[in-house]
């Protein structure tokens, strides 16, 4: 039977932990609300942009673009791993790393060289642990995603693709469905594969200014930026959503632990009282 | 349709700036300024640096600063997808003034060999447009 004092101490300690997890939950909830709002606010632009890209692609017809054409053979690829900066967000990062790991393994079996760019501190830590070839590391990109930041990041990526360093670029990130469900995915960003509308009504009649062939390149570049921006926004929302749920269940667990410990403490206390009473009465009897 | 209005959405990557019907829409095209009226043919155009004008009829037109992006027109529905878009009240005048000075420094003839001239020119244009819009907004209030 553990000492009553020890149980009391543990109860206090668990209560303190509970306070912390509860506070973290509230903070994450506030951050999540903001991140969620940002995802929704950015949607009209993203959708509108994709719609426009379709038109331009159709109008450009057979005009080749270095951003869309698929290269014959893959020698070297780039994976961008977007994880969180901080931990305590449940299994968010570990499930992402698991699928990234599987992806890389598959590719190296096919004899393709792989470089990795890590966005988020946890991502860098993981890459060093598994000894991937980490060529660039950035922190705090998902903290408050801004379009300017996405533009810079996308520009660098497109540059390395165009100069032939890489034959494809994939991004591994956690897609945001809602507060309770986040899905880790791997998405190809380069070469760009814009959606093709099967029957575009009179796309050839649309005026393009400047001509479609000239418009294509900047439009596709911007599409990459827009995709990167969406990835950053969704990663941020996923992180806060996951942390919110993780902290909520941690708080619930703490409550359960406290309940059990309190029960144990009270039983011990009762036993001690009974023991004392027996001692007193048997003492009285002996007189 | 020709008598109607244009249903305009002005979007920045981060949020919706404006949404509603207008009588006419002035835009800074990459190849020059243009004005869209109801009944305009379907069009996709690249935007340059300048001011976007929303004319809703009675009131004085609303002006916004635009830098880069695209406009997508189809059947009286116009979507402006701007890279940067600011209301006159949001313009950071101090920053614009500083960048104007910086751009002009870069464009002094002695330096033009070592700097990216088109970039400096567009920085100058952006700063000028921002300042112009900000001061115009101030004088009307």
Looking at this protein, list some descriptive labels:
heterodimer; A: about 290 residues; alpha/beta; Pyruvate Kinase, Chain: A, domain 1; 5-stranded mixed β-sheet; about 60% helix; about 15% strand; elongated; B: about 140 residues; alpha+beta; ATP Synthase, domain 1; 7-stranded mixed β-sheet; 2 helices; about 25% helix; globular
Task: Provide a compact summary of the structure.
The complex is a heterodimer of chains A (287) and B (141). Chain A is built from five helices and six strands; from the N terminus they run H-E-H-E-H-E-H-E-E-E-H.
Written account of the structure:
The complex is a heterodimer of chains A (287) and B (141). With 287 residues, chain A is an alpha/beta fold. Chain A has one domain (27-244): ATP synthase, F1 complex, gamma subunit (Pyruvate Kinase, Chain: A, domain 1), CATH 3.40.1380.10. In chain A, 61% of the residues lie in helices and 15% in strands. Chain A has a five-stranded mixed beta sheet. In chain A, helix 2 links the parallel strand 1 (76-82) and strand 2. In chain A, helix 1 packs antiparallel against helix 5 and helix 4 crosses helix 5. The longest helix of chain A has 75 residues, at 212-286. The radius of gyration of chain A is 28 Å and the shape is elongated. The two termini of chain A are 32 Å apart. The model of chain A has no long low-confidence stretch (mean pLDDT 88). With 141 residues, chain B is of the alpha+beta class. Chain B has two domains: 6-86, ATP Synthase, domain 1 (Sandwich); 88-140. Helices cover 27% and strands 43% of the residues of chain B. Chain B has helices spanning 93-106, 117-140; strands at 6-11, 16-22, 24-29, 32-36, 43-55, 62-74, 77-86. In chain B, strands 2-1-7-6-5-3-4 form a seven-stranded mixed beta sheet. In chain B, helix 1 (93-106) packs antiparallel against helix 2 (117-140). The radius of gyration of chain B is 16 Å and the shape is globular. The model of chain B has no long low-confidence stretch (mean pLDDT 86). Chains A and B meet through helix 1, helix 4, strand 6 and helix 5 of A and strand 5, strand 6 and strand 7 of B. Strand 6 of chain A pairs parallel with strand 5 (43-55) of chain B.
